[in-house]
Amino acid sequence: MDNKFDGKRISYGLTNELFANRKGEGETIILGGIGTGSSRWARVLTRRAAHQLWYRLTWLLFPEKSTQVTGARHLWIALDKALYPAGWQGPSTHHGKLN
Question: For residue 25, is it within any domain?
């Protein structure tokens, strides 16, 4: 099976002017910055990949506080609202109540 990602790793070196932006109302987040030699880079992530990246960075950067940060209910609520403004079920509908 020919997979274009097999064995390939890209290193941007130290990165300046790091940014992360949501692309419209879609499910993607754009992460980028300026790497070594002033080369600009950007990558598109799914929301799930952005969640995993945030979680992993928290564990790497703040190991002594990571349990508090990643386990904090209020933080997850705020993050969910920012990443999923329409909610997990999507936009609300106006169906009648079921018994």
Answer: yes
Q: Is residue 2 in a domain?
A: no
What is the CA 45 to chain-centroid distance, rounded? 7
Q: Which of 41, 24, 21 is nearest to 33 (CA)?
A: 41
Structural domain contains residue 73: yes
pLDDT in 10s for each residue of the chain, 99 residues: 455 556 667 777 788 888 888 877 778 899 889 988 888 989 899 888 888 888 888 888 888 887 777 777 666 677 777 777 766 666 655 555 555
Q: How far apart are CA 25 and CA 36, in angstroms?
A: 32
Residue 63 lies in domain: 16-83
Domain-embedded: residue 7: no
pTM of the predicted model, to two decimals?
0.54
Euclidean distance between CA atoms 96 and 93, whole angstroms: 9
User: Are the C-beta atoms of 52 and 66 separated by less than 8 Å?
Assistant: no
The structural domain count of the chain equals: 1
